[in-house]
Design brief:
CATH topology of the largest domain: Jelly Rolls
Largest sheet: 7 strands, antiparallel
Order of helices and strands: EEEEEEEEEEHHEHHHHHHHHH
Protein name: Transcriptional regulator, AraC family
Distance between the termini: 14 Å
Strand order of the largest sheet: 1-2-3-10-5-8-11
Helix content: 40-55%
Number of strands: 11
Strand content: 15-25%
Keywords: DNA-binding, Transcription, Transcription regulation
InterPro entries: Homeodomain-like_sf (IPR009057), HTH_AraC (IPR018060), PchR_regulatory_protein (IPR053142), Tscrpt_reg_AraC-type_HTH (IPR020449)
Pfam families: HTH_18
Structural class: alpha+beta
Number of domains: 2
GO molecular function, one term: sequence-specific DNA binding
Number of helices: 11
CATH architecture of the largest domain: Sandwich
Shape: globular
Amino acid sequence: MKSTPPPLAPSREYKSLEFSAQNGILGSRCFQNILLRPGLTLTIAKTTPRRNLIASFDRDEAPIQFGFTYSGKNRCSFSNGTLRNQVDEMQSGSNGIFYLPKMCGIIERPKDQTSCVLGIIVSQQFLREYFVDNMSELPRDFQKTLDNSNANPIHWFGPRNPAKQHLLTQIIQCQYEGGLRKLFLESRVMDLLSMQLHDYFKSETPTRSASQPLRPDDVERIREASKFLICDLENPPSLRELAIHVGINERKLKNGFRQVFDTSVFGYFREFRMQKAYDLLQRGDQNVTEVAFSIGYQNLSHFSSAFKKRFGLLPKHFQTNQRLLTTPLNK
């Protein structure tokens, strides 16, 4: 029998709204709205609709939202503004930062599929207190958002990351009560905020290169080199072999990878292997040892260390979390 994650524990010692319903016309639902601090709210929503669920939204003023799809699928369609006709398909691992004032649209959830979505809702004032001394270093749109002077939406999706999923699992399965529960949830929420903002700031910071810009034909060679590099993960080419294969010298090859992919040749190869491992572990068809060998690692401990360094937790723990993701709610 499949084990099911524990139900959401009740909140008693701080402001919390919890609602649950089983076997209603819309299916099973469980919702928590937890005020952790002034300007910082955690929401957790689990749903298993009996029919395709469509909910509309129409926002005037909007807080800053950090959204995480823990399991299941959601589809969000926008009907006005700069995001008009845009459709977001969200699934397990999707995460982002959203500031969507004066925005409307619909959210769809498929029937008979358990969806668990977590949101961290923060006020501009709450975040502004952390960045008051280095506001000028923030991305311009984010500065304006914190100053309440941004008319443009922030609509950013971050890289999927097992470390984030691990924190979400800890939040959902928290068994503490009272003050300990509040303290535990606050710490995990602040960790998630830090991770999300780090990824967002990094993606919004323009990269600069002092190297001579590449010609279009050199860019094509670099892209060809990237494909050849990952053809055989168990026997990758050397830098010299790679340069000869695409017909450029090693120096231009190294500089080219920096310009085109913003990483080194080795960094590109390492990231591809880690993402491949992520996909294979998430799929669940192979165990950790089989995944390690399939992407070219002969030493399991080296693979585990590399995976933890990249994603924040060991591959065996990540695979355990993935099994929880596919476990439905108690009926």
